[in-house]
Amino acid sequence: MSNKIISCALFFAAMSLAFASCKKDKKDECDLDGYQLKATVNGSDWCANQTLFADNAILLTINGIRDDGSTLTLEFDSTEVGTFVIKGDTNHILYTDALALGYESTNDNPGTLTVTQNDKSNNKFKANFNVTLRNPVTAASVALNGSVEVLYTE
């Protein structure tokens, strides 16, 4: 009887050690089902880690929300592979910080959009962007440099 108890105790101890030594993979908080919207905002890392969606209707609209309430919205007229200008009236970008202060792309300070993929048969879009955004009320600005990889609806 005591051999059974010792054997069981050793078995459970070994199993406990085995499970305790298993290390869970840390999930990338910016990876939302394999898709992402990441940026550097004034030198600080930002990513959509709560919601991310994209819809291609009149233009491709991509919106991401971070857990602190900040948002990044991309409204791209240019979706073919290539390099394009980001302005206030073309390929518009809007960033709202955690304090609800809005910053947007402007015509007088254009940025760059580089579309690296638009797989229209699978609705997969990838691009990089670099632009300085401006608050329309205070004229304060933020430097924005980022990338996006999404599936979009039509």
Report on the structure:
This protein has 154 residues and is mainly beta. It is 13% helix and 47% strand. It is built from one helix and eleven strands. The strands form two sheets. Strands 2-1-11-10-9-6 form a six-stranded antiparallel beta sheet, with no helix packed on it. Strands 3-4-5-7-8 form a five-stranded antiparallel beta sheet, with no helix packed on it. Strand 4 and strand 5 (71-76) form a beta hairpin. It starts with a helix and ends with a strand. Residues 1-26 have low confidence and may be disordered.
List the helices and strands and how they pair.
Layout: H1 2-21, E1 36-41, E2 44-47, E3 51-56, E4 60-65, E5 71-76, E6 82-86, E7 92-96, E8 102-104, E9 111-119, E10 124-134, E11 141-151
Antiparallel strand pairs: 1-2, 1-11, 3-4, 4-5, 5-7, 6-9, 7-8, 9-10, 10-11
Task: Quickly list its features.
single chain; 154 residues; mainly beta; six-stranded antiparallel sheet; five-stranded antiparallel sheet; 1 helix; disordered N terminus
The structure class reads: mainly beta
Rounded to an integer in angstroms, the radius of gyration calculated over CA atoms is 23 Å
**Shape call:** globular
By DSSP (H or I, 4+ residues per run), the number of helices equals: 1
- State the end-to-end distance: 69 Å
